[in-house]
Amino acid sequence: MNKNNKKKVVLAYSGGLDTSAIIPWIKEKYKFEVIAFIADIGQSEQDLIQIKKKALQSGAISAYVYDLKEEFVKKYIYPVLHTGALYEGEYLLGTAMARPIIAKKQIELALQLNAHALCHGATGKGNDQVRFENVYTTFAPQLQIIAPWREWDLNSRSDIINYLKKKNIPTEITFKKIYSRDENIWHVSTEGGILENIWNQPKKDCWCWTTDPILAPNTPEEIHLKIKNGYIISINEKKYSYLKSLKKLNQIGSKHGIGRIDIVENRLIGMKSRGCYETPGGSIIVKALQSLDQLILDRESLKWKKQVGLEMSYTVYDGKWFSPLNQSLIDSMKSFTKRMTGEIVIQLFKGNITVLKKKSPYSLYSETYASFEDNKNYNHTDAQGFIRIFTLPAKIRALKNKNKN
C-alpha cells in the first residue's frame, strides 16, 4: 500500500506508559499512520514540547498540542461547580470533567485531517473508555474506534514496560513505582501500585501536589475571595482570570495540605476502585460556593440544587457530558448563578478549610429576624397556628391508631 493511501488514526496522547506503547502497536497491527493529539489542560510538571517529541520518536507521523486550559476551566469545571456536584459525596470529578473536552477536540482534529479512526489509551476496566467513546459516537459515529486495552495481549503495565523496552521507547515508569496518574489544572489522581491493597497506607510518593498536613505551616492563613455570578474573580483583593485564580488557589491550598482524599469509589462498569485525589484549589472553591449558597438560597432551592448536583455527579462521572440530560442540569442552575455573588473569608490550616466570614448582596439572612433579642419584627405566637397545621397529619394518624386499639 502506498504511504499516501494509508489510513490515519488520531490518538489521544498523554506521553504516559499506555499511550507510548499504543503508537508502535497500532502501526504493527493496523498499519495506520498515527497522529498524536496532545491536550494541554494544565499538566503542571509535564513539558508538552518533550511529550510532542516523544510521540514523534515513538512513531507518530505528526503531533498536535491544543491549549485547552481556559476553556476547560470556564466551560467544564465551573458548570459542575455551579451545581455543587460531588461524586459519592467526595470526588470532585477531576478526571471525569476533563475527558469530554479532550475527546471533542480530538474529534475536531480527526475530521479536519480526514482521519479514519480515533484511539484512546483507557483500560478495559476503567470509566474513561466509556467517557471517550460516548463523545466519539455523539459527534463522529462514522469513525472507527480503536481501544488497545480491549484488543492487545499486554495484560498489565509490567507487560507494557517490557514492550516499550523491546521497542527502545523510554519511559519513566519502573517496576517498583507503577502508579497510574492523571493530572490537569483541577486535580491529580493516583491509582495502582501499593494502593491496590486497600489496607496499605499511601506512601509519601503517592502525593504529588500537596504538603503533608502534619508538615504544613503551623500558622493559619486567611484568604479573602470575591465571587461574581458563581466565579472567583479576586483573591485577597487582587483580580485574576478564572484560570489564574484556580492556579493561585492551587498554590495556596497545596502549601497547607488542602484537598487530599483517599477513597474507594464505585466505577461505572461495576467494580470498586481506590483513588488518591489532590484538589487543593478546587476544594477551596467548593467550600466558598457552598457557604455562599447558605446565604442566597431558600430551603426549597437549596434542596433542589442538592438534587441537581447529585444527578449531575452521575452524568459527568458516566461520561454523559454532551447528553440532553446533562445540558438541562447545567441550564437549571443559571437562575441561581445570577445571585451567586459575594465575599468569603476562609482560613486554611493543616488540611482544614474553615469559613470565617461571608456576605452577599443577595443574602436572605436577616439579623433582625434571626436575633434572639426582643424585637417587633417577629411575633412568636404566629408559630402556634403553623405548628398546628404542620403537625396535623401526625395528629390524625395518632387518633386513627388509638381508635384501632
What does this structure look like?
It contains 14 helices and 14 strands. By secondary structure, it is of the alpha/beta class. The chain has 2 domains: 3-67 and 93-177, HUPs (Rossmann fold); 186-359, Alpha-Beta Complex (Argininosuccinate synthetase, chain A, domain 2), CATH 3.90.1260. Strands 3-2-1-4-5 form a 5-stranded parallel beta sheet, with helices on both faces. A 5-stranded antiparallel beta sheet has the order 10-9-8-13-14, covered by helices on one side. It has a 4-stranded antiparallel beta sheet with strand order 6-7-12-11, with no helix packed on it. It is elongated and about 85 Å long.
List the helices and strands and how they pair.
Blueprint: E1 8-12, H1 17-29, E2 33-40, H2 48-57, E3 62-67, H3 69-83, H4 94-112, E4 117-119, H5 128-139, E5 144-146, H6 157-166, E6 180-183, E7 188-191, E8 221-228, E9 231-235, E10 238-239, H7 242-255, E11 260-266, E12 272-278, H8 280-296, H9 299-317, H10 324-332, H11 334-337, E13 342-349, E14 352-359, H12 367-370, H13 382-390, H14 392-404
Parallel strand pairs: 1-2, 1-4, 2-3, 4-5
Antiparallel strand pairs: 6-7, 7-12, 8-9, 8-13, 9-10, 11-12, 13-14
Helix pairs in contact: 1-6, 3-4, 4-5, 7-8, 9-10
